[in-house]
Design a protein that fits this description.
Length: 99
């Protein structure tokens, strides 16, 4: 009977460790990439976005080889990807309302 309790206790410990590891992994913040050496500086990217008609930029970060930003246009928030060398918008996500 003691052997059965020991096995159950080990299973419980393993299950708790697995759950704690999973929770810690999900709680870790997503880390953005660092801008490349040949990338346009962020202040120039912001200027390009303004010139292209995007209003206040709510967030911008280097990620997956591009600048990713959330900015306003026509009263809505839109997710955009910006070419890091030219500052041109290369992809737009569906527009989102500010609900």
């Amino acid at each position: 009977m003691n052997a059965r309790k020991t096995v159950n206790a080990r299973k419980t410990v393993v299950a708790r460790l697995a759950a704690a590891t999973l929770i810690a992994g999900l709680a870790a913040p997503a880390l953005a990439d660092a801008p490349g050496k040949d990338w346009m500086p962020i202040d120039q990217v912001l200027t390009k976005l303004s010139e292209a008609g995007y209003g206040p930029v709510r967030s911008i970060e280097a990620d997956d080889g591009v600048w990713k930003a959330k900015a306003e246009r026509d009263g809505r928030t839109i997710k955009i990807q910006v070419d890091p060398r030219t500052g041109a918008v290369v992809e737009k996500a569906k527009r989102q309302s500010d609900d």
